[in-house]
Amino acid sequence: MFHVRPDAGEPIYTQLTRQIRQAVATGVLGRGEQLPSVRQLAADLVINPNTVVRAYRDLEADGVLEGVPGRGWFVTNNRSPRLRDAERKRRLNELIEQLWAEAVSLGYDTEQIADLVAEALSRKAKTGRRA
Amino acid sequence: MSDAIVVERLVKRFPALIPGRAARIAVDGLDLRVQEGRVTGLLGPNGSGKTTTINVLLGLTKPTSGRATVFGRDVWRESLGIRSRVAYVPAERTVFDWMQVGKFIGGVTSLSKRWDSEYADRLIRRWEIDKRASMGQLSTGARTRVLLVAALARRPDILLLDEPTTGLDPAATDDALSELIGFAADGTTIVLVTHHIEVVDRICDRVTIMSSGHALLTSDLEDMRSSWAVIDVTGPSRPEEMHQWEEVTSATRRDEYTRLIVHANPAAVVDRLRLLGAEIASVHPLTLREVYLGVTPRAADDDLA
After folding, report:
1. B113 and B246 together in one domain
2. B chain contacts of residue A101, beta-carbon cutoff 8 Å
3. What is the rounded CA–CA span in Å between residue B225 and residue A7?
4. Which domain holds residue B279?
5. Which chain A residues touch B269 with a CB distance below 8 Å?
6. Separation in Å, CA of B288 to nearest CA in chain A
7. What is the CATH number of the domain that holds B142?
């Protein structure tokens, strides 16, 4: 069900969390459904078990998964709770980091990037659309 | 997490075979820490001291100076106590050629307190190992499997594996690695010495890159994937100077550009480079292969499988 590439230049646990999120969002993994055990998924994907643990814990912090001691990991049953502030901030920072790296390879420097982002956001504010 | 293996300022010098020649220094001031319950990959060009280090840890060769401990015990003075908890797959596959497979495994059984014969039999069936053949008759891959069975069924606390996938085809490699992952999930400490960089990339969570007998760098692999970057710079640049920067692991001049390998805060490095008048040709995240080739001066692509 999942597929990771260690040499993709992206941490394996974020590749995994993205795919699990998509599977939950599209209903491929239904509410309350059990995920493979850490050992099973690590062996299937041939990756380090700690990496799977890290992905599952991240998704738990997000409210996507729920770890039940002694039973395993499940897709949360209730509507996804509001993300914790620290978690939301972390995800936004990830996006900013990606944006920055791409913009730099296009030849912009950090100051120019900041200006362009501020400009774009103020346009959004004016047209009354939500960011 | 506590350290299962601690190596401090380890030196191993082999006397010259020919009088008058210089002694060979295999390990030259190595510092290494292996955390308990993790899978650590040891990479490095041939002759960088990996196998000698493993031999020191097993108490098979005496350190010239420095110190190495396994679970807090000195590897030379207390090697017997250590060897009962450490299993080893040697890179050298031909040493037991004269022995019958069944006898070889039987010999290992008799030395091990925790031998799991049910598990050994299961692996022997799954990997289609012929116990009546002599080791010398087996293909390289089959020999690798026999040595893996002998190490894994001991249920050790530490697994030291020197090229544990030699001779295995891709499917068999994945099968063997999945087996190792089961051990990692149970908390076994694993040290993996290999040239197969993609094996380290898949199953390790830490990596140490060695060159000329010492460690060039040690990193958490997921950290490496998230915060390391390659920055290629053209225009005026002085690699020697950039090398001194705290965030820069290496700076090497290529034909038309200078390649920086950065292990933290690439944004700050890019800004500083621009102030110096450098052109940024590209910034992209790093793969383990690129880190390896970037930091080991003598490594060539054909050194890796």
Report:
1. no
2. 229, 266, 283-285
3. 8
4. 222-303
5. none
6. 7
7. 3.40.50.300
Strand runs labelled E in chain B: 3-14, 24-35, 39-43, 65-70, 73-74, 86-89, 158-162, 189-193, 206-211, 214-220, 229-234, 248-253, 258-262, 279-285
Torsion angles phi and psi, residue B209, rounded to 5 = -105, 125
Class of domain A12-75: mainly alpha
Q: Which residues of A touch B267 (CB under 8 A)?
A: 100, 104, 110
Highest average pLDDT, of A19-23, A88-92, B158-162, B273-277, comes from: B158-162
Q: How far apart are CA A64 and CA A38, in angstroms?
A: 16
pTM: predicted TM-score of the whole model, two decimal places: 0.80
Which residue type is seen at A109?
Answer: D
Domain ranges within chain A, ordered by starting residue? 12-75, 85-127
Q: Which residue of B has its CA nearest to A96?
A: B267
> Any idea which residue has 């290494």 for tokens?
B32
If you average pLDDT over residues B225-249, what whole number do you get? 82
**Cα separation of the two ends of chain B:** 32
Interface check for B184 against chain A (CB to CB < 8 A): the answer is yes
Q: Is the pLDDT of residue A22 over 70?
A: yes
Contact B242, B259 (CB under 8 A): no
Which residue, B86, B54, B73, is CA-closest to B194? B54
Is A109 near chain B, with CB under 8 Å? yes
Q: Which of B174, B204, B283 sits opposite A104 (nearest CB)?
A: B283
A107 touches chain B (CB under 8 A): yes
Please check the confidence at residue A94 and state whether its pLDDT lies above 60. Answer: yes
Whole-number Cα distances in Å, B53 to B68, B75, B76: 9, 11, 12
- Cα(A64)–Cα(A19) distance, integer angstroms: 12
User: How many other CB atoms sit within 10 Å of the CB of residue A14?
Assistant: 18
HSE-CB at A73 with a 13 A cutoff on CA atoms is 22
Please give the single-letter amino acid code of residue B21: R
